[in-house]
């Protein structure tokens, strides 16, 4: 059995993965979603390898070489809606605490000199506001003023020691 060296901490429907069953990736999420549960996307599923909340992961420190963190980013995303089913829901009152806990957990399980990729969409929270709650600055991503596709941003961090 191959040791999983990559963690997708909020896998959802694995939509950005070219290989949705890559043998080196551990796909986790705190939710499941069965096929046929969304009338707009009847084949959409959320089937993590493990049911795990990104704010409290059961993995040892320094366990993964690469961590992908694509947390929920929309407030009021209703179950049964495309956004709610695809991405889950961000708690409007606790989002800063939840995202910071999630980032800290991803950082904890990341190996020294490992890479953390954070995907964020500005549907409710701007990138600048997100960056204020993170403990470190990204190495690169879209520059201030630059917008990703539909407000989506990819940010890269490296765990220097």
Describe this structure in words.
Strands 3-2-1-4-5-6 form a six-stranded mixed beta sheet. It is α/β, with parallel strands linked by helices and 161 residues long. The mean pLDDT is 90. The protein has helices spanning 82-87, 95-109, 127-133, and strands at 6-8, 25-29, 50-51, 64-69, 110-121, 152-158. It has three helices and six strands, in the order ββββααβαβ. Helix content is 17%, strand content 22%.
Helix/strand layout:
Layout: E1 6-8, E2 25-29, E3 50-51, E4 64-69, H1 82-87, H2 95-109, E5 110-121, H3 127-133, E6 152-158
What characteristics describe this protein?
single chain; 161 residues; alpha/beta; 3 helices; 6 strands
N-end to C-end Cα span:
30 Å
Helix content: 10-25%
Question: How many H/I helices?
Answer: 3
Beta strands, count:
6
Secondary-structure-derived class: alpha/beta
Residue-averaged pLDDT: 90
How many strands, which pairing sense, and closed or not: the largest β-sheet?
A: 6 strands, mixed
Quaternary structure: single chain
Question: Which percent band covers the strand fraction?
Answer: 15-25%
Concise summary:
Helices cover 17% and strands 22% of the residues.
């Amino acid at each position: 059995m191959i040791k999983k060296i990559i963690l997708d901490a909020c896998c959802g429907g694995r939509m950005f993965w070219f290989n949705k069953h890559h043998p080196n990736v551990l796909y986790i999420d705190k939710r499941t979603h069965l096929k046929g549960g969304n009338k707009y996307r009847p084949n959409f599923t959320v089937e993590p390898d493990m049911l795990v909340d990104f704010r409290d992961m059961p993995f040892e420190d320094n366990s993964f070489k690469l961590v992908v963190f694509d947390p929920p980013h929309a407030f009021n995303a209703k179950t049964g809606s495309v956004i709610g089913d695809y991405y889950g829901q961000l708690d409007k009152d606790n989002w800063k605490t939840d995202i910071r806990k999630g980032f800290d957990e991803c950082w904890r399980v990341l190996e020294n000199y490992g890479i953390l990729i954070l995907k964020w969409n500005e549907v409710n929270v701007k990138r600048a506001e997100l960056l204020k709650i993170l403990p470190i600055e990204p190495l690169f991503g879209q520059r201030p003023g630059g917008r990703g596709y539909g407000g989506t941003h990819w940010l890269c961090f490296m765990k220097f020691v």
